[in-house]
């Protein structure tokens, strides 16, 4: 069944409380139904209705609009970037760390968006570190007034400082996250050229080294496995 009416679910954070945002084109039918939801309120800040973020409210949304409108949850149930799905978001280190008095801190909304996107704690630490290095380079300039030329100059400085390609790429990601994800500026930085990944030739063992490896294996099963891997050219994840 195809629905002409469409409701998109969004993650909202208001006064440090999590909400489900309901974004749709207003019409009489949907306006009547949405007001029947429990604890529903209008958000002037986000220009949409919102309800507390919990399973009961989510179930109620699906039940209320079933057969009337298509509930689009692709923005709500995004793929998690956290390697540990049961990982608790932790930013205590951010508030407790020692830092110079004139040090420019990562904006609070940056942390909030990282939490909503379910980034792992390791990624959060990395993004905060790199983004703070970036904004402290432009200490006397408002963050939102840093333009693409400034960013290119900063990346050029990283290259001249002989930073690794991985470090530069992660720096770009941390900067893009603020302007594109936090501030909602699409295509703000896509024209910045990323450094090419270095192509390294694999280390190849000689035939004599392979023979020595096989001969030094005492367990016949292990000897068979090593011989099979070498003779068939299997990769580590294929055996």
TrEMBL record:
Membrane-spanning residues: none
Native organism taxonomy: Bacteria, Pseudomonadati, Bacteroidota, Flavobacteriia, Flavobacteriales
Name by which UniProt lists this protein: Tyrosine-type recombinase/integrase
Domain Core-binding (CB) per the UniProt entry, residue ranges: 101-183
InterPro entries for the chain: CB, DNA_brk_join_enz, Integrase-like_cat_sf, Integrase_catalytic, Integrase_recombinase_N, Integrase_SAM-like_N
Domain Tyr recombinase, first and last residues per copy: 200-239
UniProt keyword terms in alphabetical order: DNA integration, DNA recombination, DNA-binding
The keyword Acetylation belongs to this UniProt entry's keyword annotation: no
Any Pfam family hit: Phage_int_SAM_4
Organism field: Bizionia hallyeonensis
């Amino acid at each position: 069944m195809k629905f002409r009416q469409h409701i998109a679910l969004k993650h909202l954070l208001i006064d440090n409380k999590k909400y489900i945002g309901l974004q749709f084109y207003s019409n009489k039918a949907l306006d009547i139904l949405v007001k029947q939801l429990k604890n529903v309120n209008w958000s002037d800040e986000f220009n949409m209705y919102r309800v507390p973020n919990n399973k009961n409210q989510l179930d109620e949304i699906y039940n209320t609009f079933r057969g009337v409108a298509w509930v689009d949850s692709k923005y709500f149930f995004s793929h998690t970037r956290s390697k540990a799905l049961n990982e608790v978001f932790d930013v205590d280190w951010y508030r407790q760390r020692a830092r110079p008095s004139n040090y420019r801190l990562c904006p609070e909304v940056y942390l909030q968006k990282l939490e909503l996107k379910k980034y792992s704690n390791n990624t959060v630490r990395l993004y905060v570190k790199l983004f703070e290095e970036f904004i402290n380079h432009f200490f006397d300039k408002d963050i939102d007034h840093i333009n693409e030329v400034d960013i290119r100059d900063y990346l050029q400085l990283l290259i001249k400082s002989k930073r690794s390609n991985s470090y530069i790429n992660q720096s770009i990601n941390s900067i893009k996250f603020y302007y594109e994800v936090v501030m909602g500026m699409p295509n703000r930085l896509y024209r910045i050229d990323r450094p090419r990944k270095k192509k390294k030739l694999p280390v190849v063992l000689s035939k004599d080294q392979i023979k020595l490896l096989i001969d030094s294996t005492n367990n016949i099963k292990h000897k068979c496995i090593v011989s099979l891997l070498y003779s068939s050219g299997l990769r580590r994840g294929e055996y």
